[in-house]
Specification:
It contains 3 helices and 7 strands. Helix 1 crosses helix 3. The chain starts with 17 loop residues before the first strand and ends in a 5-residue tail after the last strand. The protein has helices at 43-54, 62-69, 76-92, and strands spanning 18-20, 23-25, 32-34, 37-39, 59-61, 100-103, 107-110. The chain has 115 residues and is an alpha+beta fold.
């Protein structure tokens, strides 16, 4: 089924729920899920988590992340660095290590593989 807006060409198909081990990203829930528990976070942080999780196994470029965040600021990498800092703080309060790796000069990569 074609889910492209005839007016603007935007893909209007809803993003699916993504699960990887104890982690889940559901675009219909305003939180990130760890072991089914909602972890409250800012929308930008949730968007980074969801975007990087969707690209599991691949490096998601900083430019792509900046576009997903709607950031056309002069320093989009700073916004991504702040989101990554907040993500690491979220995971520090859980028994899991942060599943996102920062690949210098390239982007971010989800490093957890579903069991």
């Amino acid at each position: 089924m074609d889910c492209i807006c005839p007016g603007c060409g935007l893909n209007i198909r809803p993003e699916p729920r993504i699960e990887d081990g104890p982690f889940a990203y559901d675009p219909t829930v305003p939180a990130f899920l760890i072991n089914g528990q909602r972890i409250a976070c800012r929308p930008q942080v949730r968007e980074v988590l969801g975007s990087v999780m969707q690209a599991r196994g691949r490096t998601l470029a900083f430019d792509v992340l900046a576009e997903r965040l709607g950031s056309m600021t002069a320093v989009p990498s700073r916004l991504i660095d702040v989101a990554l800092y907040e993500i690491r703080r979220i995971f520090a309060a859980t028994p899991y290590s942060c599943p996102i790796e920062r690949i210098r000069g390239e982007g971010l990569r989800w490093s957890v593989v579903a069991a």
